C-alpha cells in the first residue's frame, strides 16, 4: 500500500489552497550564500532547484524584512528591488520543477551586530536584556563577533516594523513565492517579544500573554491585509531556548503549536502522517546533504551525511562547496 506521506494534500483554507502532491517539506535553513547586498545569485537558484520536486513544498531560508532586521552577513533580504529580482530566478527554478516555495519573513532583533545594521546602529529587542550568557557570535563582514546588548524598541517604532513585515510579504509575492511564513521562533525578534525572559516591558507589548503576543498578531493582520490567508503561515518554537530566550511558563504563552518539525527520519515521518498526528513533515539538515531527499525517503535509499564544516562558509570561500555539490543518489551509485 502506498504511504500516506506521498499522498496529495491541500495546504491552507478553502479559498485558494496550495495543492501539494506529497507531504515532505524542506524546512528553512540559513546558509549565508549572499553578499552584503542580500541578493540571491545563481548558486542560490541552483540549490533550491536541486531540492524541488513536483508538487513538493520548500520553505526558503529566513529572509530579512528590512535593512534594520539584519543579523547575519550573507543572509538574504526582501526589501530592495534587486533582492526581489534575485528571488525571481529562485522561484522560477523551483516552479520549473513543479514545486512550490514559501518565503520565511525574518527580523533578528537582538541577534545582530552594529556592523550588520545601517549606520552602525545598536541591535533592538523587546527589552534591553543582557547578552553576556548567550552562546552565539554575530556573523559580520569582519568575522564572527560577540553580540552587544540591545536597546529596547520604543513603542512608536513598533508600527514601522509591522509595516516592514507587510511590505516584505508583498515583495515575496511579487518575487513569485507561493506564500510566506512569519518567523516567530528560534530566539529572534518576535520570540523575544513572546517570552517573558526577554520581554520585560510594562506597556501594551509586555506583561500578559496577550500583550506579549500583540506584535505577532499585528504583523499577521498586516500581512493578511495584502496576502490571502491560505498563503500565510507562522513558525513557533514552543519550549525552545535558542539564544537564551526563555519563559517561566511556556505552556501559557504557547497555547497551541502551529508547526512542530524536528528530528524526524523517513520511517518516523511516514508514521506520524499515517496515524494522523500531522499533515506535513518538514526536514532541514537531511535536505542539506541530500538534494533528492524526497526520492530517497520514497525508496528507502541511504542518506548522505552532512559535512558540518561547510554548512556555513568563510567569506572568501566558494558558495558551491557544501551547498550545491552534494550528489544525487543516482550519481552516487553509478560512480
From TrEMBL:
Pfam families xref list: Oxidored_FMN
GO molecular function: FMN binding; oxidoreductase activity
Residues of the NADH:flavin oxidoreductase/NADH oxidase N-terminal domain: 5-241
Transmembrane segments: none
Protein name per UniProt: NADH:flavin oxidoreductase/NADH oxidase N-terminal domain-containing protein
